[in-house]
Amino acid sequence: MKNQPTSPSERPNFAKIHRRETRVHVILPMIVTAVIFLAAVAVVLLFPQRAQVALVADWMGMIFLLCPSILCLFLICVILFALIGAMNSAQRASSRSMNKAADFVQHFTGQIADIKHDIGRRVAGIGIRWAFFDRLLGIFDPPETPDAEKSSEEPK
Q1: Is the pLDDT higher at 12 or at 98?
Q2: CB 56 within 8 A of CB 43
């Protein structure tokens, strides 16, 4: 275990550490940005040619617009990649149960098709057996007139 400093001279000076971190992380980037901006303005003022101004404008756009937007959007990209990985693992986890469900449905679809075919066959057999009674029971129907036949043949 590391020995804790006991005397005031051995303790870190937090105010000094804070000032140093402020200079490194806040003031220094501001100074670098100001120097780049002033250098660009100086180039435009010293060399007012059209190509120089376009070149400086392109660099300024990249430094002050594109770089910060790329840094800000980097976190969103990382989050999206993490979500893609999570979706992939969720799909892998659910694929086994989904395959079982698909096999279950396919099995019962085949059985249902067989049952439907069997029912259709039996209904057709019953219809064939009852055809005789249909002719017999037809004697109680009213006789068809020629006008009724013509009207039934005409399209409605």
Answers
A1: 98
A2: yes
Query: What type of residue is 86?
Result: A
Contact 48, 21 (CB under 8 A): no
Report d(CA 26, CA 43) in Å as an integer.
Answer: 26
What letter represents residue 13's amino acid? N
- Cα separation, 156 vs 141, in Å, equals 24
User: Angle at Cα 79 formed by Cα 76 and Cα 83, nearest 5°?
Assistant: 135
* Distance in angstroms (rounded) separating the CA atoms of residues 82 and 85: 5
* Strand ranges inside the chain, DSSP E: none
Cβ atoms of 59 and 40 within 8 Å: the answer is yes
Query: 33: Cβ–Cβ under 8 A, 6 or more apart, which residues?
Result: none
The amino acid at 94:
S
pLDDT in tens, 28-65: 888 988 898 888 788 778 877 777 778 778 877 887 78
**100 CA to centre of own chain:** 25
